[in-house]
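The protein record filed here.
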Amino acid sequence: MITGVVITLNEEKNIKACIESLQQVCSDIVIVDSQSTDKTTAIAEALGATVVIQPYLGDGIQKNVGLAHTENQWILSIDADERLTNEAVKQIQALDLANTPHDAFAFRRRNHIGSRWIKQCGWYPDYCIRLYDKTKTRFAEVKQHAAVQASNPKPLDCDLIHYSFDNIGQLFAKPGRNFSGRAAKIMYQKGKRANAFSPFVHGLNAFIRKYIFQRGFLGGVDGMTVALSSAVNSYLKYAKLLEFQRDPKVLENEDFNKVW
């Protein structure tokens, strides 16, 4: 038996389809909600999920909060904007989890902009571990880019669908949603420093990596767009870090206790 775990914040447009996707393979579902102000929790409870309210602690820490409320040994953790494919459902149902030597299983992730599956820029296959034995492993207790720390995972030959962005506008709004500011705060707290060339160099490197080395040029306009978005985000991250270093007023007005 498997328990599904999802962390949420104002996901009323996604949570129903997410829970219904999990219900194909999970006997119970736990929603760890970061104090949503929309109908996320009401929808989840109406569908039979257990809802745990927890102010956001950061990615890996938040995902591990739900473990104390799960009934089963095996956990399937997905985001509210992710869905299991039919192939994933069949492969999960065919697993002998009681006797497997593996402590986790990984899925290929199909990242989308709108209805468009982006196969370049490192967006596919984008393997991620999402099914794991909670008695042997869990997500790393870090605040961003957390991954399950499995010692013997197995990749499955199936996909997880990720509706990353509704449109290109959302993709470019990512830096505006303070992703870059959050990263800059973390870097500053860790003692990392930038110089006058850092924003340009890191932005250019991000573009070259996505567009050339990860073959974004094969993705047409979408490939170019993803590469440019990555460059903008990287540029802003280092520009903000540099701003913390050289502008005492900005540094004084920034609350480093509220990175999240």
